[in-house]
Amino acid sequence: MEVFLETERLILRRFTAADVDDLVWLDSDPAVLRYLTGAPTPRCEIENEVLPKILHDYQLGSVGRFAAIERSTSAFVGWLALQPPQDGSATDVELGYRLAASAWGRGYATEAARALIRKGFTELGVERVWAETMAVNIASRRVLKKSGLTYVRTFHLHFDDPLPGTEHGEVEYELHRADWMKSEISGDMT
Length: 190
Prior knowledge:
Elements: E1 3-6, E2 10-14, H1 20-26, H2 30-33, H3 43-58, E3 64-70, E4 76-83, E5 92-99, H4 108-123, E6 128-134, H5 138-146, E7 150-155, E8 170-176, H6 177-186
Parallel strand pairs: 5-6
Antiparallel strand pairs: 1-2, 2-3, 3-4, 4-5, 6-8, 7-8
């Protein structure tokens, strides 16, 4: 197991080819996918596209998507990511997370997101962390705010088969390294 980061309650480790069943399980829960796709991800897509891309991204650098393992039970509870853009630049990364419904409301996403942001800014040369979610996804927006990101904008995309709430748009949040450093010094990000 290649551990990327540990928090008080979680271990974030690199995915392996053996994680197919965990990803299929996570992407089969309609509650988890409510604001993402609205439908389960087919196993063949996870086996042939999703997991191979995750594993390939590790070859491009030190950031990517990591399996979240609950320390007390060793259970897979989802994933978190600092995802670089397609050009491979790791100075401007997207924060992402997808946790099992059973892990919601426990502060795991915020705990791990803060740790990822800290590692990105202090060890990995990241200059900006950003994230997007549906405007109506209040829980995700709360995680972003608690993790130190600030609202940037609301924007609207066209979808052929929009999810309920799409009409309210998508929101973007961000955090720059310089602002994070200021908040760390002043103690605002505890």
